[in-house]
Amino acid sequence: MYFTKTIFPLALVAAPIFALPVDESSNDLVARANKYTCKPENNESDVKSFTVSEKRAKEQVKVAMFTAGTSGDPHQYGNGDGIKWGVKGCDKKGEKKNQLYEYPIFWDTANMEWKKDELSKTQEKTPLRVVYFEDKGNSNRPKICGVMTHSKVGKNFQGTAFFQKCKD
User: Fold this and answer.
1) In 71, 130, 156, 166, which residue has its Cα 20 to 30 A from 60's Cα atom?
2) Where does the UniProt annotation place the signal sequence (predicted)?
3) Are 55 and 69 in contact (CB under 8 A)?
4) Is 102 helix (H, G, I), strand (E, B) or coil?
5) How far apart, in whole angstroms, are the C-alpha atoms of residue 88 and residue 145?
6) At 7, phi and psi to the nearest 5?
7) Do the Cβ atoms of 139 and 66 come closer than 8 Å?
């Protein structure tokens, strides 16, 4: 009797509150690893597994943003390799497609950063790239798709051939 007179009516009143719409930005939350691990298919370098922390990737994207420097980076990435990022906004096609950008990034133990305002030929080589886009067209809010590596890496870390997605 107590249930039908007190608890049940309270539950009916509270039910619509829990059904309120949620802000769209919270709908795209994805559980992600704290690092990206890259293992190129053909690797002649001394480093067989490249690791990039999510923190480093975010920091480098904020340095890169969307305007190319003297190095020519960042620049647009057309995803000719057909990588499926699995991140909302990164895999769109057609008219709704977001413009992806790529920026060279070094692995954590290299303790180096790409300098966008220095010529590429004067810098150390890295086969890795962080890929991102302007979140909802806001040039102050880049969203990371992931990290990729060239599938072939030379002894001096020069990357060639197609790109492959690093595991996150």
Assistant:
1) 156
2) 1-19
3) no
4) strand
5) 8
6) -70, -45
7) yes
Examine residue 74 and say whether the peptide bond preceding it is cis (omega within 30 degrees of 0): yes
Task: Give the whole-angstrom CA distance, residue 69 versus residue 104.
Answer: 12
pTM for this prediction: 0.80
Q: Which amino acid is at 56?
A: R
Helix residue ranges, H only, the chain: 2, 8-18, 54-64
164 three-state secondary structure: strand
Query: 149 vs 13, 102, 125, 130, 162, CA distance in Å?
Result: 54, 11, 12, 9, 8
Distance CA 167, CA 149 (A): 10
The pair of structure tokens assigned to 115 is 């300098």
Question: 155: which DSSP letter?
Answer: T
Give the DSSP H or E segment for 144.
strand 142-153
Domain 33-165 has CATH 3.40.190.10: no
Q: Mean pLDDT across the stretch 83-99? A: 93
pLDDT of res. 14: 54
Q: How far apart are CA 3 and CA 9, in angstroms?
A: 9
What the block records as the tokens of 66 is 């969307």
